[in-house]
Amino acid sequence: MKETESSLWDREETMQETRRCVIVGAANIKNYASCKTYLAETDFYAYCDGALRHQEQLGAKPNLIVGDFDSFKATEAIAIARKYASEIITLPRAKDDTDSMYAAKIMLKRGYRQFVLIGLIGERMDHSLANIALLLYLYKHGCQVLLVDDYAEYEIIGRAGCKISDKFAYFSLLTVNGDASQINITGAKFPLTNGCINCAEQYATSNEVLKGQVAEVKVGQGELLLMRLY
C-alpha cells in the first residue's frame, strides 16, 4: 500500500511528540550547570533573540533561532545560524506575540508536545509574567512542560496532581487561571484538605516536604502553578 502524504505527516508528528523542544529566552542565567541537567543531546533547541548569548555556556547548538533582534545583533545571529546550519526566523518588532510565544506556537504546529523552558524568568516582571502565561498556554494545549530558572522549577498542575520529593527546600502553589478548588496536600509541613485558592488569596506558599517523605498535591477543579524551590 502506497503511503499518502497525510500519513507521512501524521507519522512525523507522532515522532515529534516523543521529542522535546527546549525554548531558551534572554533572561539572565547564573547557574548554567543546574540548567544543563535538564537538557539532552536529542532535544530540539529554539533560541529566542538575546538567548543566543547563552548558547556557548549551555553547550547546545541552536536548531532554530527566532527573534526581532532588538536584544541581539541580527548580523551575529545570522553568523551563528550559518555556523550551525540553523533555521532562522526574523520577526517584525511590532507584533502581538513575544519571541518566546512565537517559538512555542511554531513548535506546536510542528508537532512537539514536550517542552523545557529556560532563561524566561528574569528582572523584567512583565516578561516573567508573560512567560508564566506561556507555561499555561502550552499546558492548555496538552503539552508536558517545565519552566526552570536558577531558583526553581515551575509547572502547571490540574486533576492529574503531582508528587514532590524532599530534595526541594520549599514548594508553593498559586492560581494563575481563576479559582482552584478541592485541593489536597499530604506529606507536607502544612497539609490541606479540600482547600480553595483564588487569585486574591494566595496562601499556599513556602510549604515544605516532610523529611524522608514525598508530598502529594491533588486538584479537583482548576489549575495551579507549582513552584519547586531548590
Automatic annotation (TrEMBL):
MF annotations from Gene Ontology: ATP binding; kinase activity; thiamine binding; thiamine diphosphokinase activity
Protein's name according to its UniProt entry: Thiamine diphosphokinase
Lineage: Bacteria, Bacillati, Bacillota, Clostridia, Eubacteriales
Residues of the Thiamin pyrophosphokinase thiamin-binding domain: 161-225
Species in which this protein is naturally found: Amygdalobacter nucleatus
EC nos: 2.7.6.2
InterPro entries in the record: Thi_PPkinase (IPR006282), Thiamin_PyroPKinase_B1-bd (IPR007373), TPK (IPR053149), TPK_B1-bd_sf (IPR036371), TPK_catalytic (IPR007371), TPK_catalytic_sf (IPR036759)
UniProt keyword terms in alphabetical order: ATP-binding, Kinase, Nucleotide-binding, Transferase
Pfam families, per database record: TPK_B1_binding, TPK_catalytic
Keyword Coiled coil on entry: no
Domain of life: Bacteria
Any one GO BP annotation for this protein: thiamine metabolic process
